[in-house]
Specification:
alpha+beta, 11 helices, Nucleotidyltransferase, domain 5, six-stranded mixed β-sheet, 2 domains
């Protein structure tokens, strides 16, 4: 099985190499801002020409694609950036490619051809707020034989903080091929990520016929339909005391902003040290969260043949100021992203329930659905069969039961009460007629349909 896989390593560059890395990151940011300015200027000129009645075929062309932006850059780089030869051409191409990708995603979001939340128009990048990054697709991209160094275009050979043996073995056997390399500055240090094409051995889960439902939450990171409860480590909450102290320390020092809100000034060295310490503290929390989610998702994908999760509205949850911090500390969206490709690598499948499926309100014993179930009620009590069960465990069991619906109805649309629209009703639950809709009822309160998507 051939897949695209990334290998990320921390770097230990010399002071001269660190300066070169920052120079390449700054070059990519400069090219991005220059290209975005050209696009905005062309759009403004085009709108002005429309007001004067200029025919459509004579309007100013907007440099929208990477090819058009690269052509403009090559013609103007000697004038706008006479120092361009100091860095690799891939640094500038990385910035131009960022603009082209942003415009493409924005256009697809407006047309409705891109799933997910709406994407805004690209914005200018600031060196004070944007992470330095650069992407290489051509040139010398090599992992050295000693497995402690990597070689990049114009940057030379840089020592890695850890061994690169996993990637080196694939390259030596011929089962891996480097497609691109990205360098990024995060948390006070540089990282290099190799995007490779890897030939992976087809695997099978240890329990290929087993189905597990995973209910994500804030109190517990995950509750499985098997009864296992994965506690929420709350990495960010545990680091809040240190983060608050570092934030206060940073606020007391002379930063780039003047007290009266005037022009920016050169920040002090003590402010830079405090800023770096704060960034390292946040990076540590991010690393701890990422490690925990990787361990959980890898275990699920390697054990169960079918994993069922919900399509949660994480962006909507983050809008709740009372839950935003706790929801962000869990990383619910990251769990789905990791399971999407890990289940495919392990030979399993991922079933994603519709966002409006009432997994918490539905009784896992008889299938009855409650009209309301406040978040304060942590125990589910069924009025029909008398089932008393933990709320999250009940939701996880309902999610696990959806795998049978997918297998029997072959992914057909089901209503909110699990009655199949087409043939293939789940055993033990006869098709139920949908209650008549009332006038003035919001769409979300109606018995909307449930669409199951099977991710391989």
């Amino acid at each position: 099985m051939r897949v695209h896989q990334a290998y990320r390593y921390a770097l230990d560059p010399t002071p001269a190499q660190a300066a070169a890395l920052f120079s390449h990151g700054g070059a990519a940011r400069f090219a991005f801002n220059w290209a975005l300015h050209q696009v905005k200027a062309a759009l403004s000129q085009r709108e002005a020409e429309k007001t004067y009645g200029v025919p459509a075929e004579m309007l100013t062309e907007v440099p929208w694609s990477l090819y058009a932006l690269r052509k403009l850059w090559n013609a103007a780089k000697d004038g706008v950036a006479p120092w361009w030869a100091e860095n690799s051409k891939e640094a500038y191409n990385s910035g131009l490619d960022g603009v082209a990708r942003g415009l493409k995603n924005w256009a697809a979001s407006r047309k409705g051809t891109r799933a997910g939340r709406k994407i805004g128009f690209p914005r200018f990048r600031s060196k004070h707020r944007t992470t330095s990054a650069c992407r290489f697709t051509t040139g010398t991209l090599r992992v050295e034989a000693d497995r402690r160094h990597v070689t990049l275009p114009r940057l030379g050979t840089i020592r890695t903080h850890e061994s690169t043996r996993k990637l080196a073995r694939h390259l030596e056997r011929g089962t891996g091929r480097i497609l691109s390399v990205t360098i990024r500055y995060e948390g006070g240090r540089w990282f290099v990520a190799f995007t490779c094409e890897i030939d992976r051995t087809q695997r099978t889960p240890s329990r290929p016929d087993a189905v597990v439902g995973v209910d994500l939450g804030v109190k517990h990171l995950a509750v499985l339909s098997t009864g296992r409860v994965v506690d929420n480590p709350e990495h960010h909450r545990g680091a809040l005391r240190r983060l608050r102290r570092l934030n206060k320390q940073l606020a007391r020092r002379s930063g780039p902003h003047t007290p009266d809100g005037g022009d920016r000034r050169e920040p002090s060295r003590r402010w830079r040290r405090a800023k770096a310490a704060l960034g390292k503290a946040h990076a540590r929390v991010t690393g701890q969260r990422r490690d925990g989610l990787h361990r959980l998702t890898s275990k699920l994908a390697a054990t169960y043949g079918t994993v069922v999760i919900e399509n949660l509205n994480v962006s909507g949850m983050l809008a709740n100021r009372h839950l935003a911090r706790a929801v962000a500390d869990v990383g619910m969206g990251e769990v789905r992203r990791l399971l999407t490709y890990k289940t495919g690598w392990s030979g399993g499948r991922l079933v994603v329930a519709d966002r409006w499926y009432p997994s918490s309100k539905t009784c896992s014993g008889c299938g009855a659905v409650k009209a309301k179930l406040p978040l304060s009620e942590r125990t589910y009590e069924c009025d029909g069969c008398g089932l008393i069960l933990d709320r999250d465990l009940n939701a996880a069991r309902n999610l696990a039961a959806l795998a049978a619906d997918v297998a029997q109805s072959r992914g057909e649309t089901l209503n909110a009460r699990r009655g199949a629209v087409g043939p293939g009703t789940r055993a033990g639950h006869a098709p139920m007629k949908r209650e008549p809709r009332q006038r003035g009822t919001p769409p979300r309160q109606r018995g909307g349909s449930l669409i199951l998507t099977d991710k391989h």
